[in-house]
Amino acid sequence: MTLFPYIFALLLILSISVFLVWMKQSGHTNMKVPPGSCGWPVVGESFRYVSLGTQHFISEKRKKYSTDVFKTSIFGQKMAVFCGAQGNKFVFTKLITSWWPVTVKKILFSPEFSHTPLDETSAAMHRFVHEILKPEALKNYVPVMDAMAREHVESDWDGNEVVKVHPLSKKYTFELAYRLFVKEIDVEQVTRIFKHFALVTSGMFSVPINLPGTAYSRGVKGGKLIREELVKIIKKWRQEMMEKNETSPSYTDSLSRMLLVTDENGKFMSEKEMSNYIIALLIGSYESTSTAVSFVLKYLAELPHIYDEVYKELMEIAKSKREGELLTWEDIQKMRYSWNVVCESLRLMPPVQGGFREVVSDVSFSGFTIPKGYKASWTAYTTHKDPEYFPDPEKFDPSRYEGNGPAIYTYVPFGGGARMCCGKEYARLEVLVFIYNIVTRFRLEIINPQDKIVFHSFPIPMEGLPLRIIRHNI
C-alpha cells in the first residue's frame, strides 16, 4: 500500500495551515490596506531603510505608492507610514499607543525590563523625567549650562582658527547632561561612557541582527557597559543620601531627586531600573541636542545676514550683564529672534526625523484600513519641506515663527499630541545658551559648503562640520 495519499494529505493540511496563519498575520486580506511593499521575509525593507535614511526612503515610497500613507516592513514589523499634516494629526491623536523598535528596547534596557509593556515603561519614565524637567528645575539649570558652556569654549574653541563643530557639540552636550543628571565629574569615567554611547546610538535603529560585528550587537554591548557604570554610581549616591538622611535635595541635584521618585505604590525604583531611564534620558538630552546645535551654527556661518541679527540680539543681553555674571532664565526669554532661527534650523534639518507608534484597533485613514497590531510611523519631512505649509521651503526664513507661527501638525521637530517630547524646554535652553556663548565670542565662516550629510539615527555631517572662527574685538 503506497504512502503517497497520506503524505499528500499531510502536506495539504500543512499548506492550508501556513496559508491561514499568513492570512491572519497579513492583516485580513478583505481589508483595503495601504499600498506598498513588505520586502523580504523577516528583514522586510530594513536594509533599504537604513541605507537610504528616513527622508530618502519615505520620499521614494510616496512617489511610488501614495502621498498619504503606505505600508512597509522594517525592524521586523509591518508598518503604516503616515504623511502630511493629516497623517501627523492622525498618529498624534487617534487610538495609537507608544512603540519602540526591538533594537531600541534591547539596547537601552536591561534584559529583565526589555519585555515590560511599553505603556508601563512610558508611565514610569514620565514620573522619572517629570521630577527633573519641571519648570523649577529648568530655571536652575540655566546658570549651570552657561558655566559649562564657558568652560567648553575656553578649553575647546579658544586659540583655534578652525574647529569641527559636530564632535565638539556632542562632547559638550553629553558632558552637560552627565553633570546635570548623573553629577559625577570623573573625567575618565565620562570619557569611557561617552565612547560607549557612540555604539549605542549607531545601533538603536539598525537592522535587528545580533551577530558579532553588527551595529546592533555593538549597541547591545555598549548599553550593557553603560548600565553597569550607572548602577555603581546610583548605589554610591543612594548610600550617601541614606547616611545624610537627605529628603529634599536642591533642584540642580537631579540624581538625588530621581532617587526619591516612587512608583504608584510608593516604592522606590531599583538601581537597575533607574539605570534604564538614565541611559534613555542621556540619549534624548545629548544626541538630538548636539545635532540641533551643529546645524544652527552651520546656517549662521552660511548666512551672514541671519548671523548679524542674532549677534545684535545676544550682545544686548551680554552688555546688560556684569563681568562674570551667568545667564538666567529671564535672559533666555529675551532671545526671541535667536529662537526663531533655531526653529527654522529644526525645520530644515530636524535631529529627530520621526517616530513610531502601535495601532491598538483597526483604524481607517485616507480610504485605507490599518489593522490592529500594525506599527505606525510619522516623519517631519513630509510637512517641513512641503510648499503648501512652508512657501519656498528651502529658504531659511526665521519670520515663519512670528505671530501664530506654522499651522498645527505641520511643524513637528518635537513630535506632537500627548506624547510630545518632554525635553523640548530643556533642549531650548541648552541650544540657546550654547549659541549665546559662541556668537558673542566668534564670527563664523563655513569651510566646506558641500560637507555631505548622512542620515542614520540622526543627520550627521561627514566631515564633522569644520568652521573657521574669528574672535570678536570687543
UniProtKB/TrEMBL annotation:
Q: Which annotated residues bind heme?
A: 421
Topology in the lipid bilayer is annotated as: Single-pass membrane protein
Q: Which domain of life is it from?
A: Eukaryota
A Gene Ontology biological process annotation?
A: sterol metabolic process
Q: Tell me a GO cellular component.
A: membrane
Any one GO molecular-function label of the UniProt entry: monooxygenase activity
Gene3D superfamilies attached to this UniProt entry: Cytochrome P450
Record bears the keyword Transcription: no
What subcellular locations does the record give? Membrane
CC cofactor: heme
Task: Show the Pfam families listed in the entry.
Answer: p450
Q: Which UniProt keywords apply?
A: Heme, Iron, Membrane, Metal-binding, Oxidoreductase, Transmembrane, Transmembrane helix
Indicate the transmembrane segments per the record.
Answer: 6-23
Its main localization is membrane
Q: Which PANTHER family match?
A: BETA-AMYRIN 28-OXIDASE-LIKE, CYTOCHROME P450 26
Q: Which family does it belong to?
A: Belongs to the cytochrome P450 family.
Q: What is this protein called?
A: Cytochrome P450
Say which species the protein is native to.
Answer: Daucus carota subsp. sativus (Carrot)
Upper lineage is: Eukaryota, Viridiplantae, Streptophyta, Embryophyta, Tracheophyta
